[in-house]
Amino acid sequence: MENTMYVALSRQMTLRRELDITANNIANVDTTGFKVEGTMVRTEASTGPRMIDGPASLKFVVDDGVTRDFSQGVLRQTDGPLDMAIDGQGFFKVQTAAGERYTRDGRFTLSPEGKLTTQGGDPVQGEGGDIVVNPELGPVSISADGTVSQGAARIGKVAVVTFDDLASLSKTGDNQFSNTSNLQAQPATAARVRQGMLEGSNVNSILQVTRLIEISRAYESMARTIENSAELSRRSVERLGRVA
Predict the structure, then answer these.
(1) Exposure check for the chain: N or C terminus, fewer CB within 10 A?
(2) Distance of CA 9 to the CA centre of its chain
(3) Mean of the pLDDT values across residues 107-120?
(4) d(Cα 33, Cα 146) in Å, to the nearest integer?
């Protein structure tokens, strides 16, 4: 009976993780460029528990990592001259204090020095490094290939990159990702930059709320299983005591 309690407890632990991730998805339903996440679980055999007639065939449920859906969210018009959305697969490249990071969040702005930056102040990278805008040259125009111009002057080109294996990207906060592998970022030649637009989150709120209810019910079911197992153990001990 203790084995039943341990297995149910292992499932509760993974359900708690799923609950946190699903709640985070719902909280980011309106976050620009956010990508919905999920959990992976697997069973792992244990050689510890034993039965009277030999080893028990017992498997625990364990957390096997986080999945992330990189499908594109809906593009919405903002008319902001520095707002950008990527139409297709790819990421903007930014330079942070911790190194290069990648994001789909195109809510860009200008620093006091005229650098194109994220909302957090990280410089957006172009083909030759930072992109610097001169206010005296007029309004900024951004073409579909990422070329940034002011009037007839070309001042840079926004770098849009992609990876052969998106699983190599790890979330680091501020809606950014880092490259955790030896794979090099490749130019996203098929992607198009849309000026004056932003990409919405790809979270389906109805599906996530439904999943939240399913997880809560599964957690409660595991709790009842543990309670029932504990009650059976208590009754068994009482009966053994009366027989003795």
Answers:
(1) C
(2) 26
(3) 94
(4) 18
d(CA 198, CA 33): 8
Per residue in 176-220, pLDDT (tens digit) is 999 988 888 899 989 999 999 999 999 999 999 999 999 999 988
Name residue 148's beta-bridge partners: 142, 156
List the structure tokens of 52: 């009277």
| First-last CA distance in the chain | 21
Q: Answer whether 0.85 is exceeded by the pTM.
A: no
Q: Which two tokens stand for residue 163?
A: 């990876």
Task: Give the H/E segment covering residue 17.
Answer: helix 2-27
Amino acid identity for residue 229 in this structure:
S
Residue 41 has pLDDT above 80, yes or no: no
Burial of 75 (0-12, 13-18, 19+ CB in 10 A): middle
Greater confidence (84 vs 238) lies with 84
Cα 194 to its chain centre, rounded Å, is: 23
- Cβ–Cβ under 8 Å, residues 200 and 87: no
DSSP 196-236: TEEEPP---HHHHHHHHHHHHHHHHHHHHHHHHHHHHHHHH
239 three-state secondary structure: helix
